[in-house]
């Protein structure tokens, strides 16, 4: 079983077909082991990796794991997965996990596939980026530390009591 990040890293470094086949059985677990299996297979760029990911994409029912497998297929630059991924991005995949359209768009561009929806996806991704940047700017407005003015001992207390600061809150 893939128990921790060190095991995952070791399997990736080993990088053999045996490692790929060894973790394939964990895809059906619908647990942390399935996430690790996806991570291992996605990092190993080989024809067997693509085969395993395509095979498991059809078998897995958990939408989160299926989304991770779809992203891994994009990372593998799988041209065989493009029709499957196109259908899947239309479905209700785990949007909160990642933007699969972004991965799919990159896969098409890198593979120089002239997909009819490339310009539409580019527009959507540009709008998403602008929206995220706007949220980041809004966050930065509220994340600045508040300025605190030092109150002198003999100044009126800022709590509004009317007493001197040294006799009240100081």
TrEMBL record:
Top-level division of the source organism's lineage: Bacteria
Pfam family, one: SEC-C
Protein's name in the database: Preprotein translocase subunit SecA
Originating species: Bacillus weihaiensis
């Amino acid at each position: 079983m893939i128990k921790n990040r060190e095991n995952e890293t070791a399997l990736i470094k080993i990088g053999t077909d045996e490692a790929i086949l060894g973790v394939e059985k964990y895809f059906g677990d619908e647990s942390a082991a399935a996430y690790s299996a996806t991570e291992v297979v996605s990092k190993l760029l080989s024809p067997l990796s693509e085969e395993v990911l395509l095979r498991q994409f059809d078998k897995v029912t958990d939408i989160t794991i299926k989304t991770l497998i779809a992203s891994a297929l994009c990372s593998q630059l799988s041209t065989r997965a493009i029709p499957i991924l196109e259908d899947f991005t239309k479905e209700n995949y785990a949007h909160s996990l990642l933007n699969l359209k972004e991965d799919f768009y990159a896969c098409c561009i890198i593979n120089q596939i002239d997909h009819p929806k490339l310009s539409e996806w580019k527009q959507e991704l540009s709008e998403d980026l602008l929206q995220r940047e706007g949220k980041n700017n809004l966050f930065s407005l509220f994340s600045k530390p508040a300025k605190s003015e030092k109150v002198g001992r003999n100044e009126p207390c800022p709590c509004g009591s009317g007493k001197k600061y040294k006799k009240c809150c100081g």
